[in-house]
């Protein structure tokens, strides 16, 4: 079990990173600003994270992990159509991105900042692979890792188009993603 002090320190750094990254002044998003806002020193920061991107990645991942657990609960209800479960999960991701929109918009807009792409791709890949691995049967011709990565990267690409184009609505995102999902996805529990 992790020491509660360590958890509080990480939570403090993650909260500081989110607050700074959500602000208008992206230039103030650095280790010095995070440590000052979190009330820690640089050594403590580097005991936990190697960069500001790492702490931001951890903070966004923590929020997305809640969505993964909700998806697992929804999938346990076998009476619901699978596409309804997927729609609910995607709506959760949309709400997450709206909550942290300045971070995602800046990151997608900056080709040298891979936080948005990396955090979402990792979240989707892990989540999809967990769904695939719970299946009693999965198409033999599909490599599970390739299938999970294929869908994850496609989802991130669709989300990037939505985030970066004000003329693409949430409804268009959801409907396009649902219509584009591979046929085998609708069969998964």
Automatic annotation (TrEMBL):
<protein>
    <submittedName>
        <fullName>TetR/AcrR family transcriptional regulator</fullName>
    </submittedName>
</protein>
<keyword id="KW-0238">DNA-binding</keyword>
<feature type="domain" description="HTH tetR-type">
    <location>
        <begin position="7"/>
        <end position="67"/>
    </location>
</feature>
<dbReference type="InterPro" id="IPR050624">
    <property type="entry name" value="HTH-type_Tx_Regulator"/>
</dbReference>
<feature type="DNA-binding region" description="H-T-H motif">
    <location>
        <begin position="30"/>
        <end position="49"/>
    </location>
</feature>
<dbReference type="InterPro" id="IPR039532">
    <property type="entry name" value="TetR_C_Firmicutes"/>
</dbReference>
<dbReference type="Pfam" id="PF14278">
    <property type="entry name" value="TetR_C_8"/>
</dbReference>
<dbReference type="InterPro" id="IPR001647">
    <property type="entry name" value="HTH_TetR"/>
</dbReference>
<dbReference type="InterPro" id="IPR009057">
    <property type="entry name" value="Homeodomain-like_sf"/>
</dbReference>
